Amino acid sequence: MRPYRLGIDIDGTVTCPTSLLPHINEQFGCNLVLEDIKEYDLTKAFDVDEKEFFKWYRQAESVIYRTSPAQEYAKNILSDWQKSFELFYISARGENVFDCTVEWFEREEIPFDHIELIGSHHKIEAAKKFAVDCFFEDKHDNAVDIHEELDIPVLLFDTPYNRFPIPEGVIRVNDWNEANEWVQRLFSIEQATS
After folding, report:
1. In this structure, are residues 114 and 88 in contact, taking their beta carbons and an 8 Å threshold?
2. How does pLDDT run across 40-57, given as a tens digit for each residue?
3. Which domains does the chain have, with CATH numbers?
4. Sign of the Cα pseudo-torsion (191, 194, 162, 53, in order)
């Protein structure tokens, strides 16, 4: 048995934070880029009726999730980590997209031990239930709340929509290589990435 368990968000963490933008731009006639997204709520970045946006999103989400590119280095680093860590993905996605989520992980060859789709951004209970030793997130308030509630390190993947102050114990990283460096320091496990 591997000694540590990592809790990992999917969207904006394993997948690129830009994954939604081509779909939004096509549907709503926008030209949004990541730097335009200053809040986690995407509807704040352009003129759209929230109800219309969420109705579209519900219809489009399986296509969006199937076509989301993985972040650079994620596959190699997560593959290396699987030798030393259990990889538990905890996502706000709903159970309705479980099959396409698993298919995406298999197609992208990104390893997993467990995928938990909770249908909400409130991940503390799931992180507690699965006794994760560290968490990886892109949503600022989730990162802070998980760290403060569970007293575990949380690595926050930097994006324009999460650049608010963070407490000690929440560690801002720019990419998976930086995340890997922190994990090696935090857990003193020798790893080599390919």
Report:
1. yes
2. 999 999 999 999 999 999
3. 4-16+70-187 (3.40.50.1000), 21-67 (no CATH)
4. negative
pLDDT, the chain, mean: 94
Amino acid in the structure at residue 21: L
Angstrom distance (rounded) from CA 131 to CA 36: 36
Extract the tokens encoding 92.
């706000």
C-alpha to C-alpha distance for 60 and 158, rounded to whole angstroms: 26
* Residue indicated by tokens 């596959």: 75
User: To 10 degrees, what angle do helices 74-81 and 176-187 make?
Assistant: 20
With CA atoms as reference, report the closest residue to 71 among 119, 123, 138, 121: 138
Cα–Cα dist 105/40, whole Å: 24
In a 10 Å sphere around its CB, with 0-12 CB exposed, 13-18 middle and 19+ buried, how is residue 95 labelled? exposed
Radius of gyration of the chain measured on its C-alpha atoms: 16
The distance from CA 98 to its chain's CA centroid, rounded to whole angstroms, is 15
Closest to 53 measured CA to CA, from 32, 24, 92, 22: 24
* Whether pLDDT at 191 is above 90: no
Pairing mode, strands 154-157 and 114-117: unpaired
Q: What is the pLDDT of residues 105-139, one digit of tens each?
A: 999 999 999 999 999 989 999 999 999 999 999 99
